[in-house]
Amino acid sequence: AGDGSGPAPGDGTDPPAPQRGLFPPTFSASEIKNKQRRHFMFLRWKQQQRKEKLALKKKRKKEREALGDKAPPKAIPKTIENQRVYDETTVDPNDEEVAFDEATDEFAPYFNRQTVPKILITTSDRPRGRTVRFCEQLATVIPNSHVYYRRGLALKRIIPQCIARDFTDLIVINEDRKIPNGLVLSHLPDGPTAHFRMSSVRLRKEIKRKGKEPTEHVPEVILNNFTTRLGHSIGRMFAALFPHDPQFIGRQVATFHNQRDYIFFRFHRYIFKSEKKVGIQELGPRFTLKLRSLQKGTFDSKFGEYEWIHKRREMDTNRRKFHL
């Protein structure tokens, strides 16, 4: 640079280094025809996006710390749950009509402690090994439940026998290709009957870091997000399967968590680490339910009167519309 247009050698100034990892605003990895190069550039772009997001998060955190008490409240992120379409059947706990219905419905004797739950768990005709093991493990979760494997006996004949033997509920586990895929829950003697699609079944041996076998203590029951009249009825059906007086000394808890009309069942045990810290240990089994129909009375596939039926083409037009 003898003409003086650039920095002289040894003056301590170096030309600026080119920036790396920056992509133009209109960058699209799909325009790259080489598959390996396209995948590599996509990973770099995702990494850059994560760095920018993390840097923005740190910047906002410093700004909030500098403002102190004057910092604005944190913005609530938009999710499908909090953007849910309002349902006019949402239950108000202080509603007199809801309280009257609860006092006179089919589950009122249970909540008034006039009846003790007695459950019969049965299967579809000639069940296979996985369904059999699932029923056995489900019987260890629900107290005072009995497993019966039917062979060719119709449900219309089973229900009168259950009523005669003072069973309060009937659970039927259906299967397809040796995998449990359906659950029918019928409250006896007058119904209602709910039909669920079952998925994501995991037995105890398939759960990682599972605890020891459950004890015979009556578990605590937790029902989450059953907010509508329909969801309230389903929640009361699940609650009526367990005795009303849980034995908290056993530290066991059965959870029915409703999220976007999918009911997730988990069975845990509390692990008290100290006076302030508590953990949970899953015992299993676990499964997911999706309500297909709610029928008045006991099971009757031909002449039964339905209160609610899930119709996909009519009801699933809006992702933010939920029924439970």
Automatic annotation (TrEMBL):
GO terms for molecular function: rRNA primary transcript binding. Its main location: nucleus. PROSITE patterns: BRIX (PS50833). GO terms for biological process: maturation of 5.8S rRNA; maturation of LSU-rRNA. Keywords: Ribosome biogenesis, rRNA processing. InterPro entries: Brix, IMP4/RPF1. Residues 63-72 have a biased composition (Basic and acidic residues). Residues 117-300 form the Brix domain. Gene3D superfamilies: Probable brix-domain ribosomal biogenesis protein. It is found in: Nucleus, Nucleolus. SUPFAM superfamilies: Class II aaRS ABD-related. Residues 1-30, 48-75 are annotated as: Disordered. GO terms for cellular component: nucleolus; preribosome, large subunit precursor. SMART domains: Brix. May be required for ribosome biogenesis. This is Ribosome production factor 1. The lineage of its organism: Eukaryota, Metazoa, Chordata, Craniata, Vertebrata.
